[in-house]
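Page 47, continued from p. 46.
Same chain as before, 379 aa.
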Amino acid sequence: MSADGLVAVTTHASEPEAAVAEIARAIAGVPLAGGLVFCSHRFERAKLAKALDKLMPGVPLFGCTSAGELTTRGYDSDSIVFVGFPADAFHLELLPFTDLDSFDTETARKQVRHFAGSCRNDAALALGEGLSHVALFLVDGLSHREELLTMTAQEALGEIELIGGSSGDGLAFKETGIFFDGHFQRDAAVIGLLSSSRPMQVFSANHYRPGGERMVITEADAETRTAFEINAVPAAEEYLRVVGQPSQTLDAAFFASHPLMVRTGGEYHVRSIQSANADGSLTFYCAIDRGVVMTVGEPVDRVAAMRDLFDKTEGKVGKIDHIIAFDCVLNRIDAERRQVAHEVSALYTEKGVIGFNTYGEQLRTAHVNQTFSGLAIGR
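Result:
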């Protein structure tokens, strides 16, 4: 933590109470407008939630479980990351959503519009005019509702940009948690509207370029995000043929190194594969459907591309305090496979990156995969 910056704390204490006590010591009486927490799925959630709820009574605190953490070490695990927003420069309010299976778009739009207007008024009273506003968004990474929620929220937020990530549980894919109101909850999401007198800039980038051969999903179930056939051939079989490795074992590392990309809005975005199934189908992290045209992504020089991204971001906000990052877990897996994880970690440490590895990222109206997305906060 820098003397005049965000309160940024990492703890590797094994017990929730000890971890939160370490966070409390780091806060050291600094008045906070709110806090953000990302935690390993290995922590006992009920105990951690109870300890966190006592940390800052009456102050907005939200967060989620992760598929890995981004700390002062770079890529990290079995840890808790806490970000505190000093009250002299920030204002934070929360809007949660529960029971996502019954999510109603029109009701949500009205809630978000009212919430955004109220937050801006409250922030102006607390900090004055001329503020920056960003919507930090966390959503259950197993909900399959990210696209609907992201689009609905951003439409209602208007000019306030949305950035966020889908919660994880390592690579277990069993139950992730969204933290707000003193509890970790599944099938939930939360918007943290952050206002500040400091400059803030959202960004998103992936580390791949589109390959040459195109393929079309010819049979799919959009609800479960499962492709059964590609080019009228069993999906896994055709995917391996196009990659050029027909006998390769399909696992997370292979998917991370050979992501599928889709062109939308004039740009290519990754549609990452989550799993290969016994019937030869492929299940995705993002929305897919019959007729979607895809290509296999080819890697670029990640470290060079990220340095360029950080330089451009710093050009917009000036000297960076910290970057709150939402980094797809498949990026981490791919970095390890390509043996650049140490370089990436060193760069994250150098640039003050803190955050978590996600099951997907949200930027404005889009739910995407295998990006490095985030919020840069200037001094």
